[in-house]
Structures are given as structure tokens and as C-alpha cells.
Design goal:
Blueprint lengths: L1 H24 L3 H13 L2 H26 L3 H42 L2 H7 L4 H39 L15 H27 L5 H32 L3
């Protein structure tokens, strides 16, 4: 139990220290823009291509279920569109981002820790939380929601194309928003922002505590990706459960 609390609690402690340091020293916005490019710009094709394949798989599953139960895949389109908007779009996009940007953050920070660059920063009156972690957090909070929107669009378009060309039905049924309301968009937004906040924090926890040599860098990178991915799933479950309990 203590290991679980430490696993999910360490990013919360990291967030508190980062906020306190940022309020004291400010956020380096130029570095934040560079990190936004690193997280968003370099992840966009991975997210869009991955989500395009995901949309194709989703419509294939819908066609299988339609064949067995209702006979027309277009009938299931609006329900799958709501599922994609509210649940799968933000979380799958965030996990794809975690697999690349989370690994990049953890590897970079662990390399700095192993090479004692973090200690050198502290000796020169710098603060690793304000100078290293805060820009990555800002990039995550801004970048992951944008990537989630692009990923959801890519999944929708691929679902439409596969439905039309592979199964011979009107693919526009998978763009039917009749079941999508403001609460769905709010839930999707909370998940994307929550994952965008958690991914850099989990990577920073793994990276800044790395000690040793190249082996420690590898272990920190793996730990950062695992923690970020599990955190995204936990955020997805927490937000979904809260909305279910509130009947939203």
C-alpha cells in the first residue's frame, strides 16, 4: 500500500514544489515554448497516426457487433462517436504522448541528474523545479489537450473512411453528435488537462531521482513512461467515476 501511495503521491509532491518554486522565481516562458514544441510538435504525427489506426479498429469492432446484434453498423455510429469524444480520444492520445514525450522528459532529466548538472544548477542559484519541471508542466497542460483534439479528429476521419470503403455504409454516422453534450466535452477536457499535468510530473519524478550511470538513465526512462501511462488511466477512471456518480 505504501508503494502505491508513493507511486501516485510523488507527482503530487513534485507539483507542490514546482508551484512554490514558480511563484517565487517565475516560469521561464521561452523554455516553456521550447518544451511545448518538444512535447506537442514532435508528438503530433505519432498521435494522429496512432489514433487513425485506433479509429479504424473501433469501427471494425462496431461492424462486428452490428453484424451480430442490430444488422446495421450505422446504427452504432452516434454511440461510438460519443465514446470516442468523451473517453477514448483524450486518454488514448495522452497515452501515445506519454510514450514519446514522457520517455523524452525522463531520459533528459535523468541524464542531467547522473551527470550532476542538476547539482550544478542548484549551486549557481538555479532551482530545478522552476527551471526544469515548470516549463515541462506548462507544455503538458497546453500540449496534451491540443493533441487530444487532433487525435480525436484523426480517429473520427479514419472511422468514417473505413466504414464507407470497407463496410459499404454511410460513414457520416460516425460523426453524428446527437448523444454528445457539454458534459461530454467537459469530461474530455478534464481528462486531457489532467493527463497533460501528470505526464511531465511523473517523468520528472523518475528523472530527478536517477543516480548512477547509463543503467540508471534507462531505468528512469522506463519508470517515467510506466508511471505516466498508469497515471493517465487512473485520471480517466477517476473523472469517469465522478461524472457517473454525479449522473452527468
Amino acid at each position: 500500500m505504501s508503494a502505491v501511495l508513493s507511486f501516485f503521491g510523488a507527482p503530487a509532491v513534485m507539483l507542490a514544489r514546482t508551484v512554490r518554486a514558480s511563484l517565487r522565481d517565475g516560469v521561464p516562458w521561452r523554455e516553456s515554448l521550447a518544451q511545448l514544441h518538444e512535447l506537442g510538435g514532435r508528438s503530433v504525427w505519432l498521435v494522429m497516426s496512432g489514433m487513425a489506426f485506433f479509429g479504424a479498429v473501433l469501427v471494425t469492432i462496431a461492424n462486428s457487433q452490428a453484424t451480430r446484434f442490430v444488422g446495421n453498423v450505422a446504427v452504432l455510429g452516434p454511440a461510438y462517436f460519443e465514446l470516442l469524444i468523451r473517453e477514448l480520444g483524450p486518454v488514448m492520445s495522452a497515452m501515445l504522448t506519454a510514450s514519446r514525450a514522457g520517455a523524452s522528459h525522463a531520459a533528459e532529466l535523468s541524464t542531467m541528474s547522473v551527470n550532476e548538472q542538476v547539482e550544478a544548477l542548484e549551486m549557481s542559484a538555479g532551482d530545478p523545479y522552476a527551471d526544469l519541471v515548470a516549463p515541462r508542466v506548462v507544455a503538458g497542460v497546453l500540449g496534451v489537450p491540443l493533441l487530444s483534439v487532433l487525435g480525436t479528429v484523426a480517429a473520427t476521419l479514419s472511422a468514417v473512411a473505413v466504414a464507407g470503403y470497407a463496410f459499404g455504409v454511410d460513414g457520416r454516422a460516425f460523426m453524428d453528435p446527437r448523444y454528445v453534450d457539454g458534459w461530454d466535452l467537459l469530461a474530455a477536457g478534464l481528462k486531457a488537462v489532467g493527463c497533460g499535468l501528470y505526464i511531465p510530473l511523473a517523468a520528472a519524478v523518475a528523472g530527478l531521482k536517477a543516480r548512477g550511470g547509463a543503467e540508471a538513465v534507462g531505468e528512469a526512462t522506463t519508470a517515467g513512461v510506466v508511471a505516466a501511462s498508469l497515471g493517465c488511466l487512473l485520471i480517466d477512471f477517476t473523472v469517469s467515476l465522478a461524472f457517473q456518480l454525479l449522473r452527468l
